[in-house]
């Protein structure tokens, strides 16, 4: 089992920055970690993912150049640094962990690629 706890959300003005964190615990090895988000009235969507070994990343086109996912293996933490925030980035952000290996990074852009989910944390960007 893997437990995931998000932190660092809140309210920020458009153009500002925020970093959300995800603390992972549990013995199950994780091949990848990801961030997803769900805005009111919308489906949950992929934001970014990172391989636990090697650290290669993939970001959604909507956040590329503004958001950056990173990890700290020693601390079992994953971070999402969000810059140049826009009101449309307002959503509940979820951390997710995958125990499945895939050589195709696109595999980790879908919810089906993940086995464990955090409770989510609210990020609100005011205009």
Quick description:
The protein has 127 residues and is mainly beta.
Name the features:
4-stranded antiparallel sheet; 0% helix; 49% strand; globular
Tally of strands = 11
Biggest pleated-sheet summary: 7 strands, mixed
Helix content: under 10%
Mean of residue pLDDT? 96
User: What is the number of helical segments per DSSP (H or I, 4+ residues)?
Assistant: 0
List the helices and strands and how they pair.
Layout: E1 3-7, E2 10-13, E3 18-25, E4 32-38, E5 45-51, E6 57-59, E7 67-72, E8 77-82, E9 91-98, E10 116-117, E11 121-126
Parallel strand pairs: 2-11
Antiparallel strand pairs: 1-3, 3-8, 4-5, 4-9, 5-6, 7-8, 9-10, 9-11
Q: Explain this structure to me?
A:
There is one protein chain. This protein is mainly β. Helix content is 0%, strand content 49%. The chain has strands spanning 3-7, 10-13, 18-25, 32-38, 45-51, 57-59, 67-72, 77-82, 91-98, 116-117, 121-126. Strands 2, 4, 5, 6, 9, 10 and 11 form a seven-stranded mixed beta sheet that branches. A hairpin with a 5-residue loop joins strand 5 and strand 6 (57-59). It starts with a strand and ends with a strand. The model has no long low-confidence stretch (mean pLDDT 96).
């Amino acid at each position: 089992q893997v437990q995931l706890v998000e932190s660092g959300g809140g309210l920020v003005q458009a153009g500002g920055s925020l970093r959300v964190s995800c603390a992972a615990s549990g013995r199950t090895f994780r091949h990848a970690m990801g961030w997803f988000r769900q805005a009111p009235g919308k489906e949950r969507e992929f934001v970014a993912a990172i391989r636990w070994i090697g650290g290669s990343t993939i970001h959604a086109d909507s956040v590329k150049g503004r958001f950056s996912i990173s990890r700290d293996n020693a601390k079992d933490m994953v971070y999402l640094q969000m810059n140049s925030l826009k009101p449309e980035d307002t959503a509940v952000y979820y951390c997710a962990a995958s125990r499945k290996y895939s050589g195709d990074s696109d595999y980790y852009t879908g919810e089906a690629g993940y086995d464990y989910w955090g409770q989510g944390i609210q990020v609100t960007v005011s205009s």
